[in-house]
Amino acid sequence: MTPIQECLINKSTKVNPVWLMRQAGRYLPEFREIRRSNPDFIKLCLNHTLAEEITLQPIKRFGFDAAIIFSDILMVPYGIGQTVKFKKNFGPSLGTIDLNKIQSVSEDKFTENLLPVYKLLSNLKNTKDLETRDLIGFVGAPWTLLVYMINKVSPKNGLSQDFFKDKILINEILNLLDRFIKIHIENQIKAGATIIQIFDSWAGLIKEDFDKFLYDPTLSLVNYVKNLGVPVICFPRGITDYVRFTKIVKPSMINIDYNVDPEHLIKSLDIPIQGGLDPKILLSNKENLNNQIRKYLEIFKDHPYVFNLGHGILPETEVDMVYELVETVRDYK
Ligand code: CP3
Question: Which has the closest alpha carbon to 162: 142, 145, 141, 147?
Answer without folding.
Answer: 147
